[in-house]
Specification:
333 residues; alpha/beta; nine-stranded mixed sheet; four-stranded mixed sheet; Biotin-prot_ligase_N; Biotin-protein ligase N-terminal domain-containing protein; Class_I_gatase-like; biotin--[biotin carboxyl-carrier protein] ligase activity
Length: 333
């Protein structure tokens, strides 16, 4: 990759979920800062702005891959495919994994849940079929489990660092990369496999690497980017709380595996994790105090109010707390 490629872009447009974007940003910032700038990219920016020359890694997080297709089929797919074929790297996590395959088969036969169809990117030249494990419910932790994965250490040996034999990873709705072993002559390597009985047929490939032109793609069924520290045990039933505890025990092997997957894509990974930088303040100021007051007043419809006078603006992926300190003197500053 050219040295000018210093941006890691996480797609946050239609199809992605706030939680999946939050989780992957947290983990990537711990593993890749300050070498790279990790930020989000909207569907509009992906379609209309020149992002590819400075992008070292494009990430599609969890969510619903139909949303990705509706927004990006055609021009978006062309730009992504061209970027990867010319030496870029694509990381597709759960929904992003389905989206990166030639075909998606999700809950075939279920009239309410079924999603079946060809996909334009086709980095994995076969089918991603789900659910790997039953019980998935949209916008719920009902189908969550700590899925055990067996790692193909040979395929990741060149990545360096510690590589676990097995690990348990957050799973909620992902698929199986059907008969992935049969695509070896087309640049596909299985990086990890499910060890438990699956809900669908087609082998047990949980994470695959695909050589794509001069670049590559890593596609996953589970969520190796999800850190237990960011999961709320009370957001599900008693079994979910146990799942979070189980994932916490395997946090190091999960992190080591995810590091190896990133290194497989040619991304330079920190051997020592960095703490996520604390949030900094954004200051709104003007030479005319009335201008600030008028601007804040124009935000009235988007400001939410809580008891005690707290005010905040909730964006698509971020929440901004409004602070109103006493007037500052420019001389004292």
């Amino acid at each position: 990759m050219a040295s000018s490629r210093m941006n890691v872009l996480v797609y946050s447009g239609n199809g992605s979920t706030v939680e999946s974007v939050r989780q992957v940003l947290y983990t990537l910032r711990r593993l890749l800062s300050p070498t790279y700038a990790i930020t989000t990219i909207s569907s509009s920016a992906l379609l209309h702005e020149p992002w590819s020359p400075t992008c070292v890694l494009l990430v599609f997080p969890g969510g619903a891959d139909l949303g990705y297709c509706r927004t990006l089929n055609g021009e978006g797919s062309r730009k992504i495919s061209q970027y990867v074929n010319r030496g870029g790297a694509y990381l597709g996590l759960c929904a992003g994994g389905y989206y990166g395959c030639k075909r998606c088969e999700f809950e075939v036969g279920d009239r309410k849940m079924e999603v079946v169809g060809d996909r334009e990117l086709g980095f994995f030249p076969g089918t991603c079929r789900g659910l790997a494990f039953p019980g998935f419910v949209y916008h719920s932790e009902a189908g969550t489990k700590a899925a055990e994965l067996r790692v193909n250490k040979t395929a990741l040996a060149a990545a360096g660092g510690e590589i676990p034999d097995v690990l348990r990873s957050y799973y909620n709705g992902g698929g199986v990369f059907v008969d992935a072993e049969t695509f070896k002559n087309r640049g596909v390597e299985v990086l990890a496999s499910y060890t438990e009985k699956l809900h669908v047929e087609g082998g047990a490939a949980a994470v695959v690497y695909c050589k794509v032109g001069e670049g590559g793609a890593v596609l996953t069924g589970p969520h190796p980017e999800f850190a237990a520290v960011n999961l709320n045990p009370s957001s599900g039933g008693p079994e979910y709380a146990k799942t979070v505890d189980t994932l916490a025990l395997d946090d190091k092997p999960r992190t080591d595996f995810f590091k190896a997957c990133l290194a497989k894509l040619g991304v330079r990974v920190n051997q020592d994790e960095h703490a996520v930088p604390s949030l900094s303040r954004l200051h709104l100021s003007s030479t005319h105090a009335s201008d600030v007051s008028e601007l804040v007043a124009s935000w009235y419809d988007i400001i939410s109010h809580e008891e005690g006078g707290t005010e905040y603006i909730k964006g698509e992926n971020d929440t901004f707390l409004l602070e109103k300190p006493n007037a500052w003197s420019m001389g004292s500053m």
